[in-house]
Write a structure and sequence with these properties.
about 450 residues, alpha/beta, 21 helices, about 50% helix
């Protein structure tokens, strides 16, 4: 079940043994799968720390993961003000020589900006990042390319990729994809700093967590229909926190430390799931493809909304598609996939369209594939439907949760026209070789109708 799908007034205020309870066992490889008795893998990060304050501990933390005393610190203007200046001061007072690299304007995680950052970092053997999504992805990508260690001091609970081994980067063509990178040596999360971030950052992080049940349903369906990988471990490691984020969600807008702490834990645990799967499917399926489509093609309509804000809205859209399917006694029949390369070029441009079409064709159904899938659907539909219905977080409940934390709930809330958001719902599944209920709906000729209802 989703890690935010249950609520109880008897839940404790905070983890009995501190904010790192259970997480330390998971990332150090000491967690044991209760279903198999096997120990989990060690995550590719040396140290993770979630603390209500790390003010004054920065030097010891950086040295503990091999960051040299002469190092660069990468931040943007906002993250420098939020924590960077304090961290630099504390490090300097404890023997570090810090060279400040403040990214100008509103930086974006693109290959071009990574190339520019690489030039600025060429004389440093290690790097400290201060920030969340963009700053972390840029630093992660550059230091992986140049084989230098880095650590990150997080400033917001807006995403789950702090400790991942990939970076979400924009290509020169405009396509945004996950590129190989490496994990930071250390991930240090100061809840006092994160709680003071703009409330929309926490709402975005909440949206990124909210998608868990929707992504799980997509992934399980793909596994049962196509035989793709499925692993339970990403969900099992989050079970100790079951219901905790939802129980405290009302405090997120006010920056309540307990609420923020459980959000950070949920995001960290979700990110650690990749250590078991080597892929992000457990928390990134049809809903994330809609967000990626927005990032790549909204252009002037993109008002700078955050990844998690977009994912929250897209989760509602995917939830509506899934729940319609799961209400059907018999599955709609699919037909061979229609790959319209000319229309993809019209919407995406020739370079991106060629890349996306190549991905789309990997999962496209021909006549025989559609016939086999229809036969398999008929055989397993009742079992698959029952399995998935156990995992559903109802759309009305998810909508209420997003509203409670001040999150966006529609394409219009993201600043998008209804026409463009409907386009994203209709065509986002073309971007990546991950089979979701959007693919089922498209191949059954139903996706146009679903998309037309979105605003």
């Amino acid at each position: 079940m989703s890690s935010i799908s249950r609520q109880s007034s008897s839940l404790p205020e905070r983890p009995e043994n501190g904010w790192m309870e259970h997480i330390e066992d998971v990332y150090l490889g000491r967690w044991v799968n209760p279903e198999t008795g096997a120990a989990g893998p060690r995550a590719p990060v040396d140290k993770i720390l979630i603390s209500e304050s790390i003010d004054g501990e920065e030097a010891d933390l950086a040295r503990s993961v091999g960051i040299g005393d002469s190092t660069a610190m990468v931040a943007d203007a906002n993250t420098w003000d939020a924590a960077g200046a304090r961290i630099a001061r504390n490090l300097t007072q404890n023997g570090f020589k810090i060279s400040e690299i403040i990214l100008s304007g509103r930086p974006h995680a693109t290959v071009e900006e990574a190339d520019a950052l690489e030039q600025r970092l060429q004389n440093f053997s290690s790097v400290i990042a201060v920030g969340s999504g963009t700053v972390n992805d840029l630093t992660k990508y550059v230091t992986a390319h140049t084989k230098r260690p880095y650590c990150v001091f997080g400033t917001a609970a807006s995403m789950d990729g702090y400790a991942s081994t990939t970076a979400s980067m924009g290509l020169p063509s405009g396509l945004k994809i996950s590129l190989p990178a490496h994990a930071p040596k250390g991930v240090f999360l100061d809840l006092d700093v994160i709680a003071r971030a703009p409330s929309r950052m926490a709402a975005a992080g909440f949206g990124d967590c909210l998608c868990n049940s929707v992504a799980r349903i997509d992934w399980w369906m793909s596994h049962k229909l196509l035989g793709s990988q499925f692993r339970l471990e990403p969900y099992l490691i989050s079970e100790p926190d079951e219901g905790m984020l939802e129980a405290h969600a009302s405090g997120l807008q006010a920056g309540d430390i307990t609420a923020v702490g459980y959000l950070v834990r949920a995001l960290v645990l979700s990110g650690l799931g990749v250590a078991f799967t080597k892929v992000s499917n457990h928390g990134s399926m049809g809903e994330h493809q809609i967000s990626h489509y927005i990032d790549c093609f909204a252009r002037d309509q993109h008002k700078g909304t955050l990844h998690g804000e977009q994912v929250g809205v897209a989760t509602l859209s995917m939830g509506r598609i899934q729940q319609w399917y799961l209400d059907q006694e018999k599955p709609p029949e699919v037909r061979p996939t229609k790959v319209d390369g000319d229309d993809m070029v019209r919407r995406m441009g020739p370079e991106i369209a060629a890349q996306c079409e190549a991905e789309y064709r990997k999962k496209a159904l021909d006549e025989d594939g559609a016939a086999r899938l229809n036969e398999h659907l008929q055989d397993i539909w009742q079992e698959l439907r029952a399995d998935c219905r156990k995992l559903v977080d109802p759309v009305e409940a998810m909508l209420a949760k997003l509203t409670q934390v001040g999150g966006s709930t529609s394409g219009k809330d993201l600043g998008l026209s209804s026409d463009f958001y409907r386009e994203a719902v209709r065509h986002a599944h073309e971007m990546r070789n991950r089979f979701s209920f959007a693919d089922l709906a498209c191949d059954a000729g139903l996706l146009d109708d679903f998309a037309a209802r979105e605003v």
